[in-house]
Amino acid sequence: MTQNVTIIMIEDDEGHATLIEKNIRRAGIANQIHHFRDGTSALEFLVNTPGGPLREGPTLILLDLNLPDMSGTDILAIIKADPELRRTPVVVLTTTDDRLEIERCYDLGCNVYITKPVNYENFAAAIRQLGLFLSVITVAQPGA
Q1: 25-60 tens-digit pLDDT
Q2: Rg (CA), the chain
Q3: Which domain holds residue 16?
Q4: pLDDT tens digits, residue range 113-131?
Q5: Are 26 and 124 in contact (CB under 8 A)?
Q6: Alpha helices of 5-141 — where are they, by DSSP H?
Q7: How many Å is the maximal CA-CA distance in the chain?
C-alpha cells in the first residue's frame, strides 16, 4: 500500500515559494504542501505537533538555508537529530553555492542540494525520485 507524501516547504521568499510550488505542480506532483516562511514555525510543526507530520505518512522537506529567524543548516541539524524525523528526506533549495556550505549540508544529512534559480528538469527529477522512494518503502518507527 502506498501512502501520499506530504511536502514541507520552508522558504521565506514568497516569489521563490511560488516558483517552487509551480515547478512541483508542473512536474505533475499534486501532493499536499505545507509552506512555512520561517524556521521557528516549521520546527514547531515538525517537532512539537503531537504525532508530527509523519502521522499522515511519509514526509519530504524542501529547505531554504537563508531564513529570517534561523539558519537552514540549524534546522537541518535539528531534523536529523530527532529520532522521529531523522530519516525524513531533506532537499536543500538555496542561492548559496559555496562548496563548504554544500559539504556541510550533506554532512548534516541532506539528500539533495539544489542551487536557485532552480533548473526545472533537475528539480522535478529529484522530487519524483524522492517521492517514488518514499512511496515504496516503509520507514521503521523508533523502537520498532
Answers
A1: 877 778 888 999 999 999 999 887 766 665 566 788
A2: 14
A3: 6-136
A4: 888 766 667 767 776 666 5
A5: yes
A6: 14-26, 39-48, 72-81, 99-108, 120-136
A7: 42
If you write DSSP's letter for every residue of 112-138 in order, what string do you get? EEEESSP-HHHHHHHHHHHHHHHHH--
Structural domain includes residue 144: no
14, part of any domain: yes
Beta strand pairing call for 112-115 and 90-94: parallel
The CATH number given to whatever domain includes residue 130 is 3.40.50.2300
3-state class (DSSP) for residue 92? strand
What distance in Å separates the CA atoms of residue 64 and residue 72, rounded to the nearest whole number? 6
Cell of 75: 534546522
Q: Is residue 142 part of a domain?
A: no
- Give the three-state DSSP class for 84: coil
Which stretches of 4-47 are assigned E, i.e. beta strand?
6-10, 33-36
Q: What pTM was computed for the model?
A: 0.81
